[in-house]
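Hi Y.,

Following your request, here is the sequence exactly as I used it, all 174 residues.
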Amino acid sequence: MLRIGKLNNVEARVSLIEQWFFLRRLSLWSMKKEAELESALSRNRRWVVNNQIKNIILRYPNNEIPIETLQKKFKTLDLQGKALNWLSKYPCCFQIHDNRCRLTKRMMNLVAQEHSLIDSLQSLFARRLAKLLMLTPRNRLTVLKINEFKRAFGFPDDYVIRILPNYPNLFHGH
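Below is the corresponding structure, written out as tokens. Let me know if you'd prefer a different format.
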């Protein structure tokens, strides 16, 4: 709290009022949003949601999902509104027909490229994981501990089922 000798003094009151307005302006200034940053965050959020929808679609037979089923999963994605409206905003990603949704050919090509890239990096991931295990006292780590570091080492989310079975000579599950 600011204190000045005599509050009857006009100069002291003016000074207090000026300080209050200055601090008020600073607090308001720090709350202003950066338009470019907000736009980038919004685009990133949409990309993340579209990626989640893509992964959901890929889990279904023939890479096709009923829109009603996707609508139910929409709530788990923290989205409000109709799934059909969201999908309609991105015709380059999602193809809608007969109340079903699938990925467009362009998106399927991107998915194929993504899988190809991950497959080509499997040996690199296996070497990184082997080196990590060599740093431990008994060459062992729990999957839970590895999960804490997986982003730092660049491991894919499904490394346990994608990498470990392909290298039985390096990794043993106990």
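The longest strand covers residues 94-97.

Thanks again,
Q.
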